[in-house]
Amino acid sequence: MMEKIVLFSGAGISAESGLKTFRDPDGLWKRYSLEDLATPGAWSRNPSLVLEFYNARRRQLGEVEPNAAHRAVAELEEQFAVTVVTQNVDDLHERAGSTNVVHLHGQLNQARSTMDSDLILDLGFRDIVLGDLCPKGSQLRPNIVWFGENVNNLEVAAAAIEAADKVLVVGTSLSVYPAAGLIHHASAQAEKVMVSMDLDSEPQRFTWLQGKAAELVPAVVETWLSGG
Fold first, then answer.
1. Could you tell me if 144 and 105 are in contact, meaning their C-beta atoms sit under 8 angstroms apart?
2. Phi, psi for residue 45 in degrees, rounded to 5
3. What is d(CA 111, CA 108) in angstroms, rounded to the nearest whole number?
4. Fewer beta carbons under 10 A from the terminal one: N or C of the chain?
5. 174 — alpha (psi -120 to 50), left (phi > 0) or beta?
6. Rounded Cα–Cα distance for residues 121 and 111 (Å)
C-alpha cells in the first residue's frame, strides 16, 4: 500500500509565483479594510466593489504560473497517495499537476449562486459582473469563503491529515483559524516537516526548515522520493 502524504499549504507558496496575498493587497485596495471586501456584509452593502476586488485578483491569477514548490508536490504522486489541503483560493496546485486538492476557503476561478451555495460554475479567469445570473436566476458571487462564513471541507481535511504517514506544511503562518488547527490532527508517528520564512512559534514535533518554498520543497520531495 502506498504511503500517504498530506501537503498543507498557505499563501506563502503562491506568493513565490508572484501572486499577491489577500493580507498584502496593493494599489487601490489599500484604501479598504477586509470588512469592505471579504464579508457577507460587504457583499450586501457594495457588491460591485466586492466583485471588482475579486475580478482583479482573478485576472492576476491568469498571469502567474506554478513555481518549483507546486511542481515538486505534484511529483510526489509518482510514489505516494497525496492529498493537498490548501488555504489558498488559486488553482496553482492543480495547474502544476496535483490531482487531489482540498480547498478550505473556496476557489477564485469559480462562481457560485447566491441562492444555492452548492450551485458552482467554473469561470476560468473571466470577470463576474452584476447581472451575471446562475441557472436558478440569482446573482453569481465569488466562490470564496468570506470572514464569518463556514470553512469548507474541514472534516475531509482532518481525516486526511490524521491518516497521513508524512505531513508537509508550506507557506503558512498558521494564524488563520479554524484551518490552522488542522495540523494538530497529524499522528504522533507521522514524519512532519514545515517550510516557512517565519513562524511565531514552531509547532511541536515538526521539523522547521526556514526559507523559500521554491528552494526547500523540491529538496524535501527529492529526499522522500529517494526513500529518505
1. yes
2. -75, -45
3. 8
4. N
5. left
6. 5
Catalytic residues: 105
Q: Which residues contact 23 (CB under 8 A, 6 or more apart)?
A: 11
Instruction: Specify whether the CB–CB gap between 216 and 209 falls below 8 A.
Output: yes
User: pLDDT of 159-199, one tens digit each?
Assistant: 999 999 999 999 987 776 777 789 999 999 999 999 988 76
The span from the CA of 86 to the CA of 14, in Å, is 11
> Residue 175 gets which letter from DSSP?
-
Residues in the chain: 228
Mean pLDDT of 72-79: 98
C-alpha to C-alpha distance for 150 and 182, rounded to whole angstroms: 15
Q: 31 is written with which cell numbers? A: 484604501
- At 103 the three-state DSSP class reads strand
CA–CA distance from 104 to each of 18, 152, 155, 189 (Å)? 21, 5, 10, 25
Q: What is the pLDDT of residues 16-37, one digit of tens each?
A: 999 976 655 555 567 788 889 9
pTM of the model: 0.93
Which three cell numbers, joined as nine digits, stand for 109?
A: 476561478
Amino acid at 206: F
